[in-house]
Amino acid sequence: MRPLWRLALLLAPLGLLLAAPAWAQVRLKDVVTIEGVRGNQLLGYGLVIGLQGTGDQLRNTPFTQQSLAAMLERMGINVADARVQTRNTAAVIVTATLPPFARQGTPIDVQVSSLGDSKSLNGGTLVVTPLMGADGEVYAVAQGPVVVGGFQAAGQAQSISSGVTTQGRVPGGGLVEREVPVDLRSLESLRLALRAPDFTTAVRIEEALNGRFGAGSAAALDLGTVEMRVPPGYRDRLPSLVAQMEALQVRPETPARVVIDERTGTIVVGAQVRVEPVAITHGNLVIRVTESPMVSQPGPFSNGETVVVPRTQVEVDDQRGRRLATLPRATTLKDLVDGLNALGLAPRDLISVLMALKASGALHAELQFI
């Protein structure tokens, strides 16, 4: 069998990628998450100031004007009767993820997205914005300069833009003000949630944990949950238990799946994909229409007019030269790769062939489109 890197070189012209081999050993921490140890989503509404005329138009976004007036009134400046026409302010929605076990004062990154008709947040500064959780309580406060990845430049006759300029990040701009209490010392068991639920993987995790901490320590409850009982010697040092669990090597089971991205023509074939013997023929009708107009000018001192004479050339190619190809039984990934390469198809044509193989029942895999 050829090494995987050689198979990848064979699949590169077809836009195919190889999935990781099913027999790969990975750490337990890369396969599961511990129930209760997770982040929490935070949301807030704020203002970005200091923009160079790329902020919201206050006449079109009244909520920006109301927020600006309310902020100034809290600072002792009354602008209720004044007409504020600044274009240096933008209303934004601020989002962040509160990490598990985050303590007060811990800095976190926040995401800033424009809410009004602002054209760019480049160069702006986010003013103090409270971030609330799903329960309505404030868990963090964000403030700082906004970092935008895109840019815009325009003149009188031309403009250029790159990336998205109406959203950005404030690295370390959020400070945790309220902690989410998680008491692991009172737990008598830990529940491990599989990132890719599978009965075979759950049983293998159970066997690995029982082999390390003793028989009966772990039990697979279903295809997505494994319960681990805390041994008596680890009741007061649960972090040590979790660290030893995460370091265990397990072999996750990979399903027979073909992932297809029609937009880019990318195809990822799993190692468990199998194909029965089948005959395939594939051809496309290609029509090319070429326009080559000519300009006909009248002779000197004549009363004629200059006209454009159309010239159209049409070419039709039905690709009748394609032969009927036989795809043998593919019992390994190498057999499947060699058979698909023998067809000599482009990536988008290969997507149609894979869909037809699935419909005929010859392809033993799940087709997943992304």
TrEMBL record:
* Gene Ontology CC annotations of this record: bacterial-type flagellum basal body, distal rod, P ring; outer membrane-bounded periplasmic space
- Tell me the Pfam families matching this sequence: FlgI
Record keywords, A-Z: Bacterial flagellum, Cell projection, Cilium, Flagellum, Periplasm, Signal
Q: What is the lineage of its organism?
A: Bacteria, Pseudomonadati, Pseudomonadota, Alphaproteobacteria, Acetobacterales
Which PANTHER family does the record cross-reference, listed alphabetically? Answer: FLAGELLAR P-RING PERIPLASMIC PROTEIN FLGI, FLAGELLAR P-RING PROTEIN
Q: Which BP terms does GO give this entry?
A: bacterial-type flagellum-dependent cell motility
State the name under which the record lists this protein: Flagellar P-ring protein
Q: What is its main location?
A: other
Localization of this protein: Bacterial flagellum basal body
- Signal sequence span per UniProt? 1-24
Q: What does this protein do?
A: Assembles around the rod to form the L-ring and probably protects the motor/basal body from shearing forces during rotation.
Name the family the entry cites: Belongs to the FlgI family.
Which NCBIfam families is this protein grouped with?
Answer: PRK05303.1
Please give the subunit comment from the record.
The basal body constitutes a major portion of the flagellar organelle and consists of four rings (L,P,S, and M) mounted on a central rod.
* Single annotated GO MF: structural molecule activity
Q: Which domain of life is it from?
A: Bacteria
